[in-house]
Amino acid sequence: MLLPTVVYAKSGSIAEIRFNRPHRLNAVIEALYDEMLAALADAEADRNVRAVMITGEGRAFCVGADLKEHGKGERTAFARRQYLEREQQVCKRIHQLPKPVVAAVNGYALGAGAEMAIAADFIVMAESAQIGLPETSVGAFLGGGVTKLLPQLVGLAKARELVFLGERINGAEAQRIGLAARTFPDASFRADARAFAERLAGKAPVSMALAKEQLNASANRDFSSALLAELEGMAFCATTKDWQEGVAAFAEKRAPLFRGE
Description:
The protein is an alpha/beta fold. 50% of the residues lie in helices and 16% in strands.
């Protein structure tokens, strides 16, 4: 029996998606993308899931394409394009999921692994983890929307450096340049990453979904359009039960209990 390439588990309000090819440092094959899409669809549909955490089994997050599989040369040009398109679909789904997504980079995140992490709302990294985009070193090209997302995160000059040189950087450097949101000690990484995801999961789901959608769209909006979109969002949130709960919780000096309604 083939083991799943992705382990998907839900606990409390967190859905954890874990790459599960540790013998290949979680290198990507077609099945992994298919199972990622299925897991993300389930997480989106489940009202009890408030945040998603993506991480890797073993000592890597994901080292990108499985070059051993590529080296077999068994794919037609059409099949190769379909494989590449799957990564675009996965990154797009991560980026547009109406729930916060945390990429918990526990080890190497390279190539497609880095691209999936960059598509997430937050990257958190273990101190010893490394992230990099080696495509120019192997004659490949970037995917997952990195040519748009990376300059927005770190600026165009730093994006050029990361892409053109293909060098790996550690968690501290990734946080310094704005690529990673947090760096946690190796020994407590999984617990710290989950605690970060749980903080996100405690926020109002409708407000969170609107905030994610509008922040993602901000680069393509002028100021007047942003104001109008925010006005619609504020008016809509004021009609929700969660808004009423938030106001009541503030007045009663207690933590709110949001239901996504």
